[in-house]
Write a structure and sequence with these properties.
The protein has 12 helices and 18 strands. With 412 residues, it is of the alpha/beta class. α2 runs antiparallel to α3 (89-110), α5 crosses α6 and α7 packs parallel to α8. The mean pLDDT is 96. Bound molecules: (2S,3R,4R)-2,3,4,5-tetrahydroxy-N-oxo-pentanamide (EZ4) and cobalt (II) ion. Cobalt (II) ion (CO) binds at residues 220, 246-247, 272.
């Protein structure tokens, strides 16, 4: 249906919130307009799915009915400023889902892929990185080699730690990694930062020796270090020439990264748990990081990510959004469209999905020659395979919690 020449704008007529579990849990927002255009948004907050589903169903959905889907920025402001108690992961994921769905509708109405509406391509293909892990170096190198053979030029490397039973990002038997466990309560893991700091630099240096200079190596410390421990790790890894070191310290403390930065030239990345531009304003304006990792769903959607990336552009910080299996292929689509259209976008994480997830969310985006492509379908280019989205499949799944050897709770 054409919109040029219409005097009466289209209106949002139907709001559906789908909680489903095509092997892992996702929350999907589906908006349908009077003209029959469908927009999809991802609202998944891993481990707190039903909270955001209720926020959308009970509080946001009723406010959307009858609104003009073309007023994307106004709707964003209405859902953000129209709540006295604002920000936070649940509310911002709900806004993110609405925003993604409205951009999807705009693209479909215009008959254009989303990146065309964001200013068009600034690059032919989008760099990405894959995850490799192994409990020990030989096992890790097997996965590194497999990703290189598949054409990937940048690889995140995670390894086991001697003396620990469980380590973030790794499985002991080197099988598929999925951190969220289906259970009524989170699993508890023992964590030992000193043991990690003793072993990890040697493992990563071993990977560098194996692959040579041409491969970008990344590593995620998952917010577990103190500033001085992070500085020590950054310095130890300088000879390796890392692409980046990610999430070295807890993300809510920007001053911690100033201390790290004073000690090391290893590039720093952070931001997957941020919800708004105000969470990263200091980090960006003071150039305390090299890469900002905000995720399209968790930081208020496409509209808000563009503002964060524009702020980053002014300060020489590059965009590198989170792309784990715990945000759906709808989020990844939005990120990839941004990725080909935003000048200071560096790289998109692509953790990959179980086969059933690809089937549940058929998508135009794809991997070609070790890079990501958005495809040329109108809007986001993602549809839903309705048969694979059943609310009754939902079972709680939680990310683990971590304790030090003495039992003190620490960052997972
Ligand atoms: O551990 O989203 O960089 N990627 C990551 C992720 C997070 C998961 C938590 O489920 O840190 O893999
Ligand atoms: Co991370």
């Amino acid at each position: 249906p054409g919109w040029i020449g219409r005097t009466v704008p289209d209106v949002i007529e139907r709001v559906e919130v789908l909680v489903s579990s095509p092997s892992r849990n996702y929350v999907t927002l589906r908006l349908t307009t009077r003209d029959g255009i469908v927009g999809l948004g991802d609202a998944t907050v891993n481990g707190r799915e039903l909270a955001v589903a209720s926020y959308l169903r009970d509080h946001v959905g009723p406010l959307l009915i009858g609104r003009d889907p073309g007023r994307i920025e106004d709707t964003w402001q209405y859902l953000y400023r129209g709540v006295y108690w604002r920000r936070g992961p649940i509310g911002m994921a709900a806004i993110g889902a609405v925003d993604i769905a409205l951009w999807d509708i705009l693209g479909k109405r215009a008959g254009q892929p989303l990146y065309a509406l964001l200013g068009g391509r600034v690059r032919d293909r989008l760099a990405t990185y894959r995850h490799a892990f192994g409990w020990d170096l030989p096992a890790l190198l097997e996965q590194v080699d497999a990703h290189r053979e598949a054409g990937f030029e940048n690889i995140r490397v995670q390894a086991g730690v001697p003396g620990l039973d469980v380590v973030y990002g790794v499985t002991k038997d080197n099988t598929v990694y999925e951190p969220a466990g289906r259970a009524a309560a989170p699993a508890e893991e023992i964590w030992d930062t000193e043991a990690y700091l003793r072993s990890m630099p040697g493992v990563i240096a071993g990977v560098r020796e194996h692959v040579g200079d041409a491969v970008g190596l990344l590593h995620d410390a998952h917010h577990r270090l103190t500033p001085i421990q992070a500085a020590r790790l950054g310095k130890a890894l300088e000879p390796v020439g890392m692409y980046w070191l990610e999430d070295v310290t807890p993300a809510e403390d920007p001053e911690a990264l100033r201390l790290v930065r004073q000690h090391t030239t290893t590039p720093l990345a952070i931001g997957e748990v941020f919800n708004t531009i105000w969470d990263c304003q200091q980090l960006i304006e003071n150039r305390l990081i090299d890469y900002i990792r905000v995720a399209v769903v968790h930081a208020g959607g496409i509209s808000h990510l563009r503002k964060i990336f524009a702020l980053a552009e002014v300060h020489g910080v590059r965009a590198a959004p989170h792309g784990p299996s715990d945000v759906s292929p709808i989020s990844l689509a939005a990120s990839i469209h941004l990725g080909v259209a935003v000048h200071n976008f560096a790289i998109q994480e692509y953790m990959g999905y179980p086969d059933l997830v690809h089937e549940a969310f058929p998508h135009a985006w794809h991997v070609a020659d070790g890079h990501l492509q958005p495809g040329d379908e109108p809007g986001l280019g993602v549809t839903l395979n309705d048969e694979l989205h059943h609310a009754d499949d939902y079972e709680p799944a939680y990310l683990p919690v971590a304790r030090r050897r003495d039992g003190t709770l620490t960052d997972w």
